[in-house]
Design brief:
9-stranded mixed beta sheet; about 25% strand; metal ion binding; RibonucZ/Hydroxyglut_hydro; nuclease
């Protein structure tokens, strides 16, 4: 199964002519999962090879506008371009994010008299008070659920922190487990870990032939982890005829932060194939970055090293850093310097560093164990 990650917006604070606001898409066969949705995301989608109609899940890291303002408009545009199938009901779009997201979307759609041709559901993560300074915690009066659903809204879950894992288990399905974890920012912020289940190893067909088992449905049952009984009564277990399993891929996307909270992030992101981490300002501006709840390249590198990640992808750059292709001689701020700082911090670790740019697509291949 193919899997890749496409960056639609890699800038902070606002969309500019050279960088869109935060948004990226994890694409697997048949589905697109959107992480954050800053202003202008739908325009970026139109410029990309992705189809907005394929978005089935949205993950919002925090409630700052540069990660959120594009969501109501995107949902409305997807609805306008939807061709309903009379024999098949439209898929419900599941949206995950901090407390307050449900009310934000409900009010935005109601005040603009927006109707959708598909249902949606908002699942809220309960933050803890230590995720931000006191003034960043929203009043319960603001986030309170009125209980009155938008006409196309389906009731969503409120997801508490699991104290044992220090994570939020937000999705468990046949192919993936998705967890959220806490970050420290000016408002409650979260990161997300998408873990693919392991793939069964290849069948030892030579051994199966020796056992007298011909290709057919029994091969599929063995692949699925079931034991089968041969005509002579012999029971063949999957472990006897399957090669070593292929590890599932793991992609972790962190929202804005100046630090991790608790053990949850390191557990959820351990051995990530790709770790996406903000690097708003260069290391020389570390004090300013931290004061505003943000990170620098060496701070992102420290997280990648602690997680034993395979690749660190830096994004959410201050708009002062233009894409490398637009950098001119004499410009003071060079985005390539951000990569150099992260690489220097990771020297000798084997962790690859990549600078995200708008419309960059990173393939995520399966890696077989030797």
């Amino acid at each position: 199964m193919t899997m890749d990650l496409t960056f639609l917006g890699t800038g902070s604070a606002y969309p500019s002519p050279h960088r869109g606001a935060s948004a990226l898409v994890l694409r697997t066969e048949g589905e697109c999962w959107l992480f954050d949705c800053g202003e202008g995301t739908q325009t970026q989608l139109m410029k990309s090879q992705l189809k907005a109609s394929r978005i089935t899940k949205v993950f919002i890291s925090h409630l700052h506008g540069d990660h959120l303002f594009g969501l109501p408009g995107l949902l409305c545009t997807v609805s306008l371009n939807l061709n309903p199938c009379p024999t098949q009901p439209p898929t419900c779009v599941d949206i995950y994010g901090p407390q307050g997201l449900r009310q934000f979307l409900r009010v935005a759609l109601e005040l603009t008299s927006s109707q959708l041709l598909f249902p949606y559901s908002v699942h809220e993560l309960e933050p803890t008070t230590d995720q931000c300074p006191t003034e960043g915690n929203l009043s319960p009066d603001v986030t309170a659920d009125s209980g009155r659903l938008h006409p196309q809204e389906r009731a969503g879950r409120t997801i508490p922190l699991d104290v044992n894992s220090d994570c939020y288990v937000i999705l468990e399905e046949k192919r993936f487990v998705v967890k959220a974890f806490r970050l420290f920012h000016r408002v409650p912020s979260f990161g997300f870990s998408v873990q693919e289940h392991d793939w069964p190893g290849r069948l030892n067909t030579e051994l199966l032939k020796d056992l007298g088992l011909k290709p057919g449905p029994l091969y599929g049952r063995l692949k699925a982890g079931e034991s089968v009984t041969l005509e002579n009564g012999q029971v063949v277990k999957p472990s006897e005829v399957l090669e070593e399993a292929i590890p599932g891929r793991k992609v972790c996307v962190l929202g804005d932060c100046s630090s991790l909270l608790g053990e949850g992030p390191l557990r959820a992101c351990h051995r990530a194939d790709i770790l996406v981490h903000e690097a708003t300002l260069s290391d020389e501006h570390r004090e300013k970055a931290v004061d505003h709840g943000h990170s620098t390249p060496s701070m992102a590198a420290a997280v990648a090293q602690a997680c034993c990640a395979r690749m660190l992808v830096l994004y959410h750059f201050s708009q002062r850093y233009k894409p490398a292709s637009q950098h001119k001689e004499g410009d003071e701020d060079d985005v390539v310097e951000l990569r150099r700082q992260a690489e220097e911090a990771l020297q000798g670790t084997g962790i690859e560093v990549t600078l995200a740019e708008d419309f960059l697509t990173i393939p995520i291949p399966l890696i077989k164990l030797h």
